[in-house]
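Team,

Forwarding the record for the chain on the shared tracking sheet. I've put the sequence and predicted structure together so nobody has to dig through attachments.
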Amino acid sequence: MAAQFTTLYSEDTEYSADSVEWCHQDDLHAKYFACGTYQLVEGAEEAAESGGKQRPRKGRVYLYQFDGGSLERLQSIETAAILDMKWLPSWGNESGPILATVTSLGKLETFELLEDKQILEKRTCLALEEDKDVEPPLALALDWKQEGSAIQLAVSDSNGGLNLINYTPQGKLTLEKSWKCHGFEAWTCAFDRWSPHVLYSGGDDMLLLAHDLRSPEEQKIWTNRAHMAGVTCLLSHPSHEHHLLTGSYDEQLRLFDTRSMKRTLAEVNLGGGIWRLKPHPLNKDLILTACMYTNFSVVELDAKSPELRLLGAYEEHKSICYGADWAPTGGKALTMATCSFYDHKLCVTRVDLSS
C-alpha cells in the first residue's frame, strides 16, 4: 500500500502552530477540529534575564469547521501558549464535547463545544502549581481515560513530573497527586488502553517508564533505556493489547510488547525527531506521525509480522512539524490536518491509499 497526498487548504495561523486535534466523538461533531498555537512574546528573553515576571509566551486556540468542501475558521481564543490538547467525551446529552488544553503557565483548561453557536466556551481551569511564589512548570502533554462516569487526566511537565487530575461530570477539576519521575522534561505521558492503572511516561533523560497508579508510592513497573535521545510521544495501541509505540528525538519509531521490554518488536527510522503518533479512528493500524525536522509520515502497522511500513511522506511544511490528526472519515481517500511551527502553517490534506 502507498499513500499519496493532495493539499486541499492551507492557512496562516499567525502564531506558531504546534497541535491539531480533530473531534472524533460522533458524526454530528466530526466536522470540527481545533488548532493550538505557541508564540514567544517579543522581549520575553530580556525580561526573564532582568528578573521580570511578564508572561513570556502566548497562544491561541482556533476552532475550525471542515465539511469536506470548505474550511472555515469559526473562532479564535487568546490563551497562554498551548503545548498539547485533547478532546474529551461530553457528559451525556446535555453537553457538547470538551476540549482540554495544557499551557505554558502550567495550567489545564477545558472548553465545551457548543454546536448551536459553533463556538468553544471556557469551562474550567486548574493550576498544577498553586504556590504563587514558585514559577509554574510548563504543562507539556496530556492524556485521559474514562471508567464509567469518571474521567482521569494525566499531565506531564517541564520539571520532569507527572500530575493526575480527576474530572467530575459537574466539570470540576481536582489534582489528585503529583510526583517527579524524570531528570529533565517529561515530554509525554499516556495511559495504557488495556490496563487503566498503568501510566507510561517519556522524558528528555531518554527514559521510558511504566507507573502503577494503584500504588501510593507511584511504583515503577519497569524502566526502559532503549532510546538514544529524549522520548517524545507514546501510543498504547487501541486495537492490539500489549502493543506500545514510541517516538523519540533519535528518529526511530519503535514497537514494544509491554510484557517483554528488553527488545523491540519492530523499528523504522523516519528521519527528524518524532513528536506525535495518531492512529486513524477507523483503521487504527494507519498511524500518522509528526516528524519534527522532516515531514508528516503515514506508517502502517502489521501486527502479525510484526512490522512497521512507511507508506508515504507529506512534504508541504517547511518548518518544525508538530501537530497532526486524522479526520474521522474512512475509505480509500482519507483526510488529515497538519500544522507547523515557525511558518505558522495549517494544512488540510486528502490522503489517497493505493495497493
